[in-house]
Amino acid sequence: MKKFAASLLIFCSLSFVYGQKTRLGQPPPTAKPGVSYPIAVHVSGIHVRTPCTGQNCHDVVYADAIVDGKKVELMGDWIWFPDYYQLALFPGDYRGRLLKDTSKKNDGPIFQEYELLLRGNTVWRCSVTGVYE
After folding, report:
1. Structurally, how many domains does the chain consist of?
2. Position 63 in a domain
């Protein structure tokens, strides 16, 4: 009986310790060496919104940008660490690359996916969610 109680105590304590190691976010991805970012991107405004679906809420960044001469709205995740936000996206000029081109299917830039090269050699993956005149 003592062995059973000891093993139950160890099991419960290990599951409690394991439960404390949950990660709220992962570090932002970094640019791979040798990958080029040929597209000029100018970000003029940034908006952070928190959409909720049921009990799942997370912060999303919307950026007003000019991508390759077109005024668009970009949307991507706002990366959260336990104590601070870790996305160095500010208004300014960046370099980007096209990851997924949907213009052939939709006849427009909606849902195209881009990767922007930020300061510190980190990248922000985003998609086009709006188009301006």
Report:
1. 1
2. yes
Closest CA to 116 of 59, 77, 60: 77
CA 79 vs. chain centroid, Å, equals: 6
- Which helix H or strand E contains 123, and what residues bound it? strand 123-131
Q: Report if residue 96 sits inside a domain.
A: yes
Q: And the tokens for 117?
A: 């090269």
Strands annotated E in 6-69: 39-49, 52-53, 56-57, 60-67
Domain carrying residue 88:
39-131
Quickly list DSSP for 51-115. Answer: -EETTEE--EEEEEEEETTEEEEEEEE--B-SSSB-----SEEEEEEEEE--HHHHSSSTT-EEE
Q: Average pLDDT by consecutive 10-residue portion of the chain (133 residues)?
A: 57 46 58 92 92 79 93 85 66 95 77 91 91 87
pTM flag (> 0.85): no
CB contact set of 80 (below 8 Å; sequence gap of 6+)? 24, 25, 58, 59, 86
Could you tell me which of 131, 115, 113, 114 has the C-alpha nearest to residue 123?
115
Q: Given the structure tokens 């991508």, which residue do they identify?
A: 67
